[in-house]
Amino acid sequence: MRFIHAADLHIDSPLRGLDRYDGAPVARLRTATRSAFERLVDRALAERVDFVLFAGDIYDCDWQDFHTGLFFREQLVRLGRAGIRVFIVQGNHDAQGVISKQLVLPQHVTVFSSRTAQTIRLDDLSVAIHGRSFPERAVDEDLVPSYPPPVPGFFNIGLLHTSLTGRAGHDTYAPTDSPTLINKGYDYWALGHVHAREVIAERPRIVFPGNLQGRHAKETGAKGCELVTVEAGGIESEFLALDVVRWSQVAVPLDGLHRLDALGEAFRRALDPVLAGAGDRLHAVRVTLTGSTELHRLEAAQPGTLAAAMYGAAQDIGEAEIWIEQVRLELTTPLDRGRAAERQDAVGELVRLVDSIAGDEAELLQLAQDELGDLLGSVPQEVAVGDVPRLDDPVELRSLLMDAEATVLARLTDSGADR
Ligand SMILES: [Mn+2]
Question: Where, by residue number, does the polypeptide cross the bilayer (predicted)?
C-alpha cells in the first residue's frame, strides 16, 4: 500500500511586491504553486499510489474567482481517473468559514467534516483514515481528543492541521503535543500547517511535509511531499521534491577579495551547494555579501556596482537558471582603525566618531531613531517590507553605519578601489 501525504499547497498564493523587482520572472513565480501541484499529481500517477492525503491549507485565502477551485478540481479528476482516492482536512487558510464560493468535488474526494472527527475505512487496504476540518480560521482547542480510537487490525492514519506546541513564524492553531498524538494509538500522523518539513517521531510516524512550493525568500530549500509505502507493518517514507522554483539565501564572503573580477568565482563557490542535484528548476536567490574588502569603497563611490556584479555572475552560470531576488551588503572597509583614529584630520575625526557610536549600543539605537525614524515612518508599507533597516537591530544598524563611513571616506580620500 502506498500513499502521498502533502499539505500547505497555498494554490494561487498572491506574491506581493514582485513589481518592484526589475526583471523578476513574474509569470513563473505566480504559477509556481500550481505547477508544483501538477507535479504532485504526475508523481502520484507514476508511483501508482492508492490514495493522496492533504492536511490543510490547499488554498491561501478566499478565491478571487472560480479559477483557483476549478484548477484544483481538474487535477483531482486526473487522480480519480486512475482510481486514486483523495482525503482532505481544511486548515486555517481554507477553513469552511474562509472559502465563500462553493464547488462540488468529484466522488472519489472526501473532505472531512468540521463538526466532528470522522473515520473513513478503506476495507480493501485495511486502512482507516481519521480527520477533522477547521470550521473557522481560528481553532484554539486540541482536536485530537475528539478523534476516534484506532480501528483494530487496520493501518490507522490521523489527518490533522495543527501548530503542535507552537512553531516560530506560524500562528498557533489546534494546539497539541506529540505525547497526545502517540497515545492515540495510530500508525501515522499526517500533519499540516508548518511550512518547514519536520519529522516529529518515527513510531508512530508523525510528519509535517512542509509546503509544496516555497513562496518567498524565507521559505528556503527543497519543498515537496511524503511518499509512504506500508508493507508487512513496516513504514518506508521518502521525501519527493516537487518545487519548480527553489528559494535560497546565500552568503558570499568577500574577505581578502579586492578585485571586481574575483566576485564571479566567489559567487559560484557559494552557490554550489544550492545547485547540487537541483539544477532543473528556477533558483530564486537572496545574496548577502559579507566581510572586509576594498570593494566596499568602490561600492561607496559607485552604488550598485556589487549588485550588478552579482547579476552578471548569475548570467554566467549555464547549468541552472538563477534569479537574484536581492543583494544585501554586510561589508566593512579594510582600515587600520587604530592608526586612522590618531590622524589629526577629517579622516581621523570620522573614524573616532564612528567608533564611538558603533561601540555604544544605546547611542546607536538613539541615533537611528532620531535620524531615520521619521524618514522610515513615511515610507509606504509595500516598499518597507524587507528593504528598510530595522531600527531596533544593532547588527543591521552597524552595517549601515559602516556603509555611511565608507561613503564619506571615499569622498574624503577620493581613492576608489582597484578596478
Ligand atoms: Mn495553516
Answer: none
